[in-house]
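Appendix B. Chain record.
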Amino acid sequence: MKENVVKNKSFTFALRIVNTYKFLAANKKEYVLSKQMLRSGTSVGAMVREAEQAESKKDFVHKLAIGLKEINETEYWILLLKESGFMEEQMGDSLLEDAIEVKKLLVAIIKTTRQNMNN
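Structure tokens predicted for this chain:
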């Protein structure tokens, strides 16, 4: 079976987000911003999983587009946590790199699927 790169990377990203949330809650006593990051950062992978069972190509694109919105939101929360001093720069930069990688995959899949639908 062919490896599903976006599925694997979005799951690994979600695990990193969960661990980052646990760290921020335990060590920095930061609960509000990190909870927002937790919600959006884990929902990306959930939308990728939902897209696997899409009822149509249109539904597939729609679910991945929601995942794309969620990864954009996650980038915002990471930047906010980083710039406000709750998250160390190295940790934030590393998470942002992973988020950008997942985002690029989602954009490419959405774009390719839309092109194939139009042909």
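Further analysis of this model is presented in Appendix C.
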